[in-house]
Amino acid sequence: MSHGEFKKATVFPATDGFEITCSDIAPDKSISHRCAMFSLLSDRPSHIRNFLLGEDTLNSLNIAAQLGATVEREGGTVTITPPARLSEPSDVLDCGNAGTGMRLYCGLLAGVEGSFILTGDKYLRNRPMNRVTKPLRSIGAKIDGRDNGNLAPLAIRGGTLKAFRYESPIDSAQVKSALILAALRGDATSYYKEELLSRDHTERMLRGMGASISTDEDGWIAIEPLQAPLAPLELTVPADPSSGFFFAVAAAITPNARVTITDVTLNPTRIEAYKMLEKMGADIRYITKEDLYEPIGDIVITYAGKLRSITVEENIAWLIDELPALSIAMAVAEGRSTVKNAKELRVKESDRIATVMSGLTACGIECDDFEDGYTITGGEIRSASVDSHGDHRIAMSFAVAGLLIQMEITDIACVDTSFPNFFDILKGITKVEL
Ligand code: S3P
């Protein structure tokens, strides 16, 4: 058993609507992982405020400590003092449930002298790693694991890496980031290209730390090997738009509801799902307040009547994590919605096409799946008990459906991987029994 399969939540309808300002949405998961890892590329302490205290990102922080960093933490304020040289850990490095943790550490450690074993929970140990191990092996990395290096535990023998020119077959920020981290330890300039720009926190943060990473007009990213340690990170992690999106959907589907999410990253590669919700009929405003590695501000979502159906087939990498929650909006919209080109959903924390379909079917919603997507015919959601299958985003998406009709969600401990206070915020707008 992992993640406490027996924990469950019952969410009751919010019949009178609600108006809340969420200034405690979980800090961004992608940026928090990167803070833990990139601080190791400096020779001075990095100061991070509002670090995500979720299981996934705390695992990344633990791994930084196992590699020799001194980590001082008071709540979400973390100082990470890197060692002069990353050291060989005396134990395996446990990434828990985090694909980001495992794939990025793979790229980072492939070029570091020493032996490292990356492992994770039963879900992560079944997710494909050859998307990073294959290109890394082709530049000289020594990585092995079950299924010819595809499945964790992964054993890495770090060493010298060759420069590369690699056109990725998938638009994945995890693959891109792993390759960029490896390129920093390459023997000459490396080049990386993806078809659609995936989330670009890695490029923005490493550039901010002084790395030479540039993108030409054809989308090729040129990465120069590090000549010296980078400047440390100084930042307050913004709120996570993917976590905020559960409450965006909550506002969009509940009459008389409004949610304000404060200090969230407004990076265009992260807020595409909000644009889709807007297209479906929700009233959404974006207020940019500052720029720290990326634009940051508030998003205000107001219920504006019954939602309309939508077809989602472009810029999929920009909303891949939000599709389960967007599917709840589709389930109550007028008409038939379609999601296409989303086969990546099959290899997330669960097969999210299958888990969204089984959850919606339990709720009496007509839906149909195909290899890389699905259709949902909007209707009236029926009260149901939905299994999260250990997937945090499935648990939270169906909990939000509970605002309209009573929902039971089983196996909810996985929510702690990315959004430990999710149910506390939900309790602020409706009755929840845990
Ligand atoms: C992430 C990238 C995305 C996303 C994941 C976090 C990241 O995965 O789904 O939750 O932090 O780089 P892919 O890069 O596999 O698309």
Features:
26% strand, UDP-n-acetylglucosamine1-carboxyvinyl-transferase, Chain, 13 helices, 434 residues, binds shikimate-3-phosphate, 2 domains, four-stranded mixed sheet, 24 strands, alpha/beta
Q: Which strand order does the major sheet show?
A: 22-23-1-24
Q: Structural class given helices, strands, pairing?
A: alpha/beta
| Distinct helical segment count | 13
User: Would you identify the CATH architecture of the largest domain?
Assistant: Alpha-beta prism
DSSP summary, beta strand count: 24
Strand content: 25-35%
State the CATH class of the largest domain. Answer: Alpha Beta
Shape: globular
Bound molecules: shikimate-3-phosphate
Q: Which parts are unreliable, with pLDDT below 50 for 5 consecutive residues or more?
A: none
Question: What report would you give on this structure?
Answer:
- The chain has 434 residues and is α/β, with parallel strands linked by helices.
- The chain has two domains: 8-27 and 259-433, UDP-n-acetylglucosamine1-carboxyvinyl-transferase, Chain, CATH 3.65.10; 29-236, UDP-n-acetylglucosamine1-carboxyvinyl-transferase, Chain (Alpha-beta prism).
- The longest helix has 13 residues, at 241-253.
- The mean pLDDT is 97.
- Helices cover 28% and strands 26% of the residues.
- The protein has 13 helices and 24 strands.
- Strands 22-23-1-24 form a four-stranded mixed β-sheet. A four-stranded mixed β-sheet has the order 2-15-17-16. A four-stranded mixed β-sheet has the order 4-5-3-14, with helices on one face.
- The two termini are 19 Å apart.
- The chain has helices at 29-38, 55-66, 99-109, 130-138, 146-149, 173-183, 201-208, 241-253, 272-279, 323-331, 352-362, 392-401, 422-427, and strands at residues 8-11, 18-22, 46-49, 70-74, 77-81, 93-94, 114-119, 142-145, 151-158, 165-167, 190-193, 213-215, 221-223, 234-236, 257-265, 283-292, 294-302, 311-312, 336-339, 366-370, 373-377, 384-387, 407-410, 432-433.
- The structure holds shikimate-3-phosphate (S3P).
- Residues 30, 33, 100, 172-174, 177, 198-199, 317, 320-321, 344 line the site of shikimate-3-phosphate.
